[in-house]
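Researcher: I'd like a candidate sequence for this fold, 172 residues long. If you have to choose between options at a position, lean toward the conservative one.
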């Protein structure tokens, strides 16, 4: 089984959020330094976000951007800067060869994500597919992990429905 990240990172690199902070900062700072500072803040927040202290990645992203803007004394609205990143993540580019690869691969493929469900759903809708239908359209068997016993949409037919990941292990 392989896990592939097939979203193009170049578009994110072109994102102007760091550039906006750089332009508005009260000191001379590079985009690389801004990126490093933000990444460290974001990583610390993620490390401490579990159990009772759990927060979504979107919340952590916003807080880390607020801290970065404050640190560089930039005159920006953190919500606007966060939205720039969010706009990318819900409309990601896909490598041109990814679709053909998934159509022709002869080994099991597993796509996992640790991003917030809302982000994934919007990205899937942007590419006019569903997580189940999209997988099946590419020849991938789709398993619906239905922990909360939700009713399935009438037009979605997963190959398998499970209540927890242990169920999947038993059925593979």
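Model: Candidate sequence:
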């Amino acid at each position: 089984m392989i896990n592939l990240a097939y979203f193009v990172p170049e578009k994110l690199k072109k994102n102007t959020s760091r550039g906006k902070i750089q332009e508005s900062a009260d000191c001379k700072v590079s985009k690389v330094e801004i990126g490093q500072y933000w990444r460290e803040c974001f990583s610390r927040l993620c490390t401490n976000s579990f159990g009772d202290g759990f927060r979504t990645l979107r919340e952590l992203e916003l807080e880390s951007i607020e801290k970065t803007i404050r640190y560089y004394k930039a005159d920006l609205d953190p919500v606007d800067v966060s939205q720039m990143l969010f706009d990318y993540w819900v409309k990601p580019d896909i490598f041109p060869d990814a679709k053909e690869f998934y159509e022709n691969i002869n080994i099991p493929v597993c796509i996992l994500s640790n991003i917030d469900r809302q982000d994934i759903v919007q990205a899937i809708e942007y590419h006019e597919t569903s997580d189940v239908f999209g997988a099946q359209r590419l020849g991938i068997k789709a398993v619906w992990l239905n922990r909360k016993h939700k009713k399935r949409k009438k037009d979605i037919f997963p190959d398998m429905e499970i209540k927890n990941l242990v169920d999947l292990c038993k059925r593979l």
